[in-house]
Every structure is written in C-alpha cells, then in structure tokens.
Design a protein that fits this description.
By secondary structure, this protein is mainly α. It has a single domain (2-175), classed as MFS general substrate transporter like domains (Growth Hormone, Chain: A, Up-down Bundle). The chain is 87% helix and 0% strand. Helix 3 (58-78) packs antiparallel against helix 6 (147-168). It is globular. The termini are far apart.
C-alpha cells in the first residue's frame, strides 16, 4: 500500500504540477527547472538513504519518508514563489528517496530467497499501478475540486499511509530506530572529540 501511494503521488506530481505552475504564471524555463529538482534530489538521495536502510529500522525510514512527502505536497498546494516551490520539491524528492530503496530492502529482508523474486514482482505490480491510479484519481479530483484540493487530498493520504505502515511493521532485531542511531552517532563523535582534546 505504501508503494502504491508513493507512486500515486508521483503520478500526480508529473501530471498536475506543470499545469499548476503554468496557472501560477511561471515561464517554461522555470517550470523545467522546478520539474528537474524533484527527480534530481530523489535520485541522488537514494545513494545515501539506501545505505542508511542497512543501519536503521526500515519502518522509520518509511514513516518519515511518507510524512515528508505528504507535508511537501500540502506545501505545494499553497506555495507561490519559485524558491518555495524549489524547496518543497527538494523535500518531496528526499522523502521519496527515503522510501524507494527501503521498500525493496524490506521485502528482501522479510522473504525467503526462494520467494523473493515473486514477492518483488507482486510488490512492483502494486507500486507501479500507483502511477495509473494516481493519474486517473487526481485528474478526477482536480476537475471536480481544483488542482490545489487534489494535491491536498493526496498529501493527507500519503501521511496517513505512512502512519499505517509504521503501525503494521516491526523493526528487525539489532536495527536501531533512526533517532537512536542519530543519538549514537552524536555521542560517539562527541566522545572522540573529547579524547582528541585530552591528547592535545
């Protein structure tokens, strides 16, 4: 379900965002730049978030990734300036980067090797159906209530699905929560700094 909703909001962004930006009075050059921010941050971010999912509880990455996406979408519905759109699209890209490799890692971690390819195939079917469902659903909502209302509805759905996934999932053994991992890193760095200062 999280994969489907993730791609649902992705399909909506590709379909409705350019129209929204035209309505806001942006030039084609500006629209091109803004359209590139989201996938650029998403693509580059996966290089870091994929590795992070090996260190921390995967459900934390899914929860906060979906929440960031939802909040970014809510912001996009109300944004007006080029800078605000760019920042919100970067946030949306990072939220997507947090969940995209984590989906596959979670399936690999929780399925037997003999069932892994089948499980990934089923997951990717439902995840990629989100593109089609998102394009159809958000188009209908936009026609009925306007583009901002459609974006808000998907933003709320994205946050809700993130919370639902957090409730349904469990952390793997020896996988710290993301906050515990951050505290551990900060503590370790602080201790190392103290030792270096003591040596000096």
């Amino acid at each position: 379900m999280t994969g489907l909703v993730n791609n649902l909001n992705d399909g909506m962004v590709w379909g409705l965002l350019p129209i929204l930006l035209v309505q806001k009075g942006f030039s084609l050059h500006e629209i091109g730049i803004l359209a590139a921010v989201y996938p650029a941050v998403w693509g580059i971010g996966q290089l870091f978030s994929g590795r992070l999912s090996d260190w921390v509880c995967k459900k934390d990455l899914l929860l906060w990734g979906m929440i960031l996406q939802g909040l970014a979408l809510l912001g996009l519905a109300m944004a007006g300036s080029f800078v605000s759109f760019a920042l919100l699209l970067a946030l949306l890209g990072w939220g997507t980067a947090m969940v995209y490799p984590t989906f596959l890692a979670s399936i690999a971690e929780n399925t037997h090797p003999f069932d892994r390819a089948k499980s990934l195939g089923v997951f990717r079917f439902w995840r990629d159906m989100g593109y089609a469902i998102g394009a159809l659903l958000t188009g209908i909502l936009a026609d009925a209530f306007g583009i901002p209302a459609s974006i808000v509805a998907v933003g709320v759905l994205t946050v809700a699905i993130g919370i639902w996934a957090d409730y349904r999932m469990r952390c793997a053994i020896n996988s710290p929560t993301i906050w515990a991992w951050i505290r551990q890193k900060v503590t370790t760095n602080s201790q190392q700094t103290t030792k270096l200062n003591a040596v000096e």
